[in-house]
Specification:
Layout (H helix, E strand, L loop, with lengths): L25 E5 L10 E3 L2 H8 L8 H8 L3 E5 L9 E5 L4 E7 L13 E8 L2 E11 L2 E5 L6 H7 L6 E5 L9 E5 L12 H8 L10 E4 L5 H14 L2 E5 L6 H9 L10 E5 L2 E4 L6 E4 L1 H16 L17 E2 L7 H10 L1 E7 L2 E4 L17 H19 L11 H19 L16 E4 L7 H5 L6 E4 L24
Parallel strand pairs: 1-3, 1-11, 11-12, 12-13, 13-17
Antiparallel strand pairs: 2-3, 4-5, 5-9, 6-7, 6-10, 7-8, 14-15, 14-16, 17-18, 19-20
């Protein structure tokens, strides 16, 4: 084509899209002042959390978690069995013409306690038009345009951040009136049970991708069981909050309650809790360890990858003040707890540090499943394989083996990058990629029968790199006149 000029191309192919493969993402479950309780809420940071889930409240760690974590996370709000959104009825020519309801359930919308109120005023055009003024804690946060039809208020509310307006059984425009408080809102959190917490975590559908999932501050065995089951079913890793104690027996009891579960390898338990600077100078907050573990993972993964433990020098909690639990443990106690799968946070060189990186799987019974880093690497391999396989759904399987080879290469190329990054371990005497991983899509796997049945199969084998949990330095003193040999 001649230049300068204009070129227009038309294609029937949709834009390329990929499944999520980011292993650093965090999925958190907790109570909140407000926010949707029917679908996950995407939070981009602390300021976004303030806007979407409300003020800090004594019964939730969610805002604190976003302070510590700082990055994008998904949040599932827990409510009790009978949540209600605050509402107010606006009178019209006859009966209730409009119902104004808070956008989400909870007592945050109750105007009598500083929540929402709605005032009806004449519009600039006079008594034939109305304006609704929405206030939160007595401060105007929204004002409708003037309307001469009640249905216009209903349509306007679809974009409102605070209220939903629906038509009532009455007629006419709402009557001019002073501010009316919305009332009746509750999240019913006092009646929330393990069932409601599980329902919240299960809202994180598998399509959201891999990552860490935590029920903030929940230390019960049922909460841990539900988290591990969710992680197993959705290709995630559960970060479990252990009890805030340095009592060995209590920590042992907590881990033994879930250590024999089939899903034990899908998560790690961390203790004790962490002392963190408060919001006012000179004050402190006691926060569950899961948010700190997730924050370190989000820091380490983009640089070192998921197979690098966010522990030791990679797990230093520089902003924390110390561990919140009192008491002491001996070195043998720490060793015993580590063997059981309790990942302790310890003060090392003056800094609170994550000093364990194990799953809950027994090392002797599951020698390939006790390293949390390897479990997180497997999470990535599964996610990458799913993403690679997505492009082959409904692809024709040709008789020349082109599709089979392409499928194998699509997965193999991703594993090869993991090999290059050092996450996969080759044979020391033959350090080729082929000795670190293998992808088989040959006719031995994809037989004529499986192909005729519409299946495309890849068998994948890999060897993950390990980490140094025990570092030894062996020193020998050699007398003068004696040769030194290594």
């Amino acid at each position: 084509m001649a230049r300068p000029g204009l070129e227009v191309t038309v294609s029937d192919a949709p834009p390329s899209r990929s499944l999520p493969t980011d292993t650093s993402r965090l999925f958190i479950v907790d109570f909140a002042q407000k926010g949707d309780h029917t679908t996950p809420i995407r939070l981009t940071g602390p300021a976004d959390a303030a806007a979407k889930i409300g003020d800090r409240v004594s019964y939730s760690y969610a805002r604190d978690a976003m302070d510590v974590y700082g990055a994008e996370a998904y949040f599932a709000r827990v409510v009790g069995p009978a949540p209600v959104a605050a509402t107010a009825a606006l009178a019209g020519t006859s009966g209730t013409t409009l119902n104004v309801t808070a956008k989400s359930v909870g007592d945050w919308g109750n105007g009598a306690t500083g929540g929402l109120s709605v005032e009806v005023a004449n519009g600039p055009s006079g008594a034939t038009h109305r304006v609704l003024i929405i206030r939160l804690n007595g401060v105007e946060v929204e004002r409708t345009p003037e309307y001469n039809s009640r249905d216009s208020f209903v349509t306007w509310s679809q974009a409102s951040s605070y209220v939903t307006i629906t038509a009532g059984a009455g007629t006419g425009l709402p009557t001019v009136a002073a501010a009316a408080n919305l009332a009746g809102g509750t999240d019913d959190r006092s009646n929330a049970t393990d069932t409601h917490w599980k329902a919240a975590v299960d809202r994180f559908q598998k399509e959201l991708g891999p990552g860490q999932v935590a029920m903030l501050g929940r230390t019960t065995s049922q909460a841990h069981t539900d988290l591990l089951a969710h992680a197993q079913a959705n290709n995630r890793v559960a970060i479990l909050d252990g009890p805030n104690t340095l009592a060995k027996a209590t920590l042992t009891s907590a881990v033994n309650a879930v250590r024999t579960l089939a899903a034990a390898r899908y998560g790690g338990l961390f203790a004790p809790w962490v002392s963190y600077p408060g919001l006012a100078p000179g004050t402190t907050r006691t926060l569950p360890p899961s948010m700190f573990v997730a924050a370190k993972i989000a820091e380490v993964d983009p640089v070192e990858g998921p197979n690098q433990p966010a522990a030791g020098r990679w797990g230093r909690l520089e902003g924390a003040l110390g561990v919140a639990a009192t008491g002491s443990l001996t070195d043998l106690d720490y060793q015993d707890l580590n063997e059981l799968g309790v990942n302790m946070i310890r003060v090392r060189l003056g800094v609170p540090t994550i000093f364990g990186w194990r799953t809950l799987a027994d090392k002797d019974d599951f020698p390939l499943r006790w390293k949390l880093s390897n479990q997180r690497l497997e999470m990535l391999i599964i996610a990458e394989s799913q993403d690679a396989g997505e492009d082959f759904i409904f692809r024709q399987i040709d008789g020349q083996g082109i599709t089979l080879a392409g499928f194998g290469s699509a997965i193999g190329n991703r594993l090869n990058q993991m090999y290059v990054d050092g996450w996969l371990f080759p044979d020391p005497d033959d350090p080729r990629p082929e000795t670190a991983f293998y992808v088989d899509t040959s006719s031995a796997v994809n037989t004529e029968q499986t192909i005729a049945d519409g299946q495309l199969i890849a068998d994948v084998a890999y060897r993950p790199s390990s980490f140094a949990e025990l570092v030894k330095v062996r020193i020998v003193v050699v007398p003068i006149g004696t040769p030194i040999t290594v």
